[in-house]
Amino acid sequence: MINNMKKYLLSFAVMLMGSTLLTGCLESDNDNNTPTEYVVTKGVLVINNGNYYNGIDGSLTFLEFGTNSITAQQNVYKNANGESLGGTPNDVMAYGDKIYITGSDENTVFVLNAKTFKLIEKINTIQDMGAEEGYCPRHLEAYGSNVFVSTYGGYVAVIDTLNLTIRDMYKVGSAPEGMAIGGTSDTDVSLYVANSDYGNGNGSISKINLVNGSISEIKNDKIHNPQQLAVAGDIIYVLDWGYYDADDGYKQKDAAVYMINGSIISKVVPDATGMAASGQSIVTYNYPYGSSKPTYSIYNIVNGSLSNLTSSGGNPIESPCAISIDPNTGFIYLATRVIDPDTGYPSYTLPGYLNIYNRNGQFVAVSSYATGVEPHVIAFTYGTKKIEY
User: Fold this and answer.
1) Which residues lie below 8 Å from residue 309, measured CB to CB, with a gap of 6+?
2) Which stretch of DSSP H or E encloses residue 375?
3) pTM for this structure?
4) Which pLDDT does position 388 carry in this prediction?
5) Does residue 171 have a pLDDT over 90?
6) Can you tell me the distance from the alpha carbon of 267 to that of 250, in angstroms, rounded to the nearest whole number?
7) With CB atoms 3.0 to 4.6 Å apart as the test, which of 53, 125, 188, 357 could cross-link to 332 if both were Cys?
8) Cα–Cα distance for residue pair 256/278, rounded to 1 Å
């Protein structure tokens, strides 16, 4: 496994060369005919929320890439005591030789062996941070020897990846969700945090300077409910969920992707409730609460163009709930709930499935792949491959 994804995680700016960076040579001197190592994608992780109110625990699905096939494995999390991930695991990330999962209802970060999926450690955020500060861990990000975890207590915890303890924490805004690393060099690295304010309309973005520890806040009248971030140097792309209109059946409105460039903010994807970024592209789906049909877009961050993306083939994506891009291939991974045949509405108790498309939205897999109940986040595991000269 890759022990240091620092170059990949350094900033979304390097995503302009993203696939080149991840699939390019790790050793560039081939004068002595020495093997060259390439970073390759080994598999796909899908964290499934489950359904707390119906007693369905969350789970982890793993799609393993074989030579000519993909094998879907369900409930791969292994705990010697037979315990599950519990209620509402919210995020998953492979980093180094470990997999990290946030258990929101469990107030726990689960740390797994990336090869065996066996539990290594359970980090209780309330116990280590405080009852208010560590409440409800949400999202994950990583840089260097640290994994960062946002909590609804309004903090970001810093986990040491070697001894698996929380060694520091930063106070940020209200109800922080997604995070992203940005910067242009090792001496200019920041962690950006989307403070959702629980959708109450007073969202903001915290900027934590990882070099000197200073924290600043970015606010704008157009940012109400930020959920996800991608950063290109000092340019920030924000997925904002807008608001729920109480006068119109609580339909979700004004969900979009915004670009923040200094004091200038502009809407680059007018309609979006899900976002994934890699290379020069931001791919989105739009399926707001109250909608009956999803739509898809792709935004080119180099030339600023926006185009429709049609996901064709495989089982129909009728209720999208997770999206990601493999940085090595550019393939788009899209997970969905199924439609309950008895009610005609998206089911929150039946297993979902995942489709794989190329960068043009054409179905590329042999079939759709089953997930657990309520697939929520898609991530990737990586390894290296040597090419002999």
Assistant:
1) 283, 296, 297, 298, 332, 360, 361
2) strand 375-387
3) 0.90
4) 61
5) yes
6) 23
7) 357
8) 18
| C-alpha neighbours within 13 Å on the C-beta side of residue 276 | 24
SS3 (DSSP) at 353 = strand
What is the model's pLDDT at position 366?
80
The span from the CA of 191 to the CA of 176, in Å, is: 12
Alpha-carbon gap, residue 348 to 319, rounded angstroms: 11
pLDDT digits over 276-333, tens only? 999 899 999 999 987 778 999 999 999 999 998 887 778 889 999 999 999 999 999 9
3-state secondary structure of 246: helix
- Write down how long the chain is: 389
| Mean pLDDT of the chain, nearest integer | 88
Closest CA to 48 of 376, 274, 350: 376
pLDDT score of 8 more than 90:
no
The two tokens of residue 209 are 């300077």
The alpha carbon of 387 is separated from its chain's Cα centroid by a whole number of angstroms, namely: 30
Under 8 Å between Cβ of 278 and 21? no
Q: List strands edge to edge, sheet with 375-387.
A: 70-73, 59-65, 36-48, 375-387
- Walk across the sheet containing 204-209 and list its strands: 176-185, 188-195, 204-209, 215-218
Q: Do residues 205 and 192 lie in contact, with contact meaning Cβ atoms separated by under 8 Å?
A: yes
Alpha carbon of 238 to those of 149, 151, 212, 310: distances in Å?
18, 19, 25, 23
Confidence of residue 69 (pLDDT cuts 50, 70, 90): confident
Determine the residue type at 38: Y
Q: Which of 180, 177, 132, 253 is nearest to 13 (CA)?
A: 180
Q: Which of 71, 94, 74 is nearest to 84 (CA)?
A: 74
> How far apart (Å, rounded) are the C-alpha atoms in residues 191 and 222?
21
Note the pLDDT of residue 32. Answer: 60
Q: How many contiguous H segments (helices) and E segments (strands) does the chain have? A: 3, 30
Mean of pLDDT values over 361-367:
85
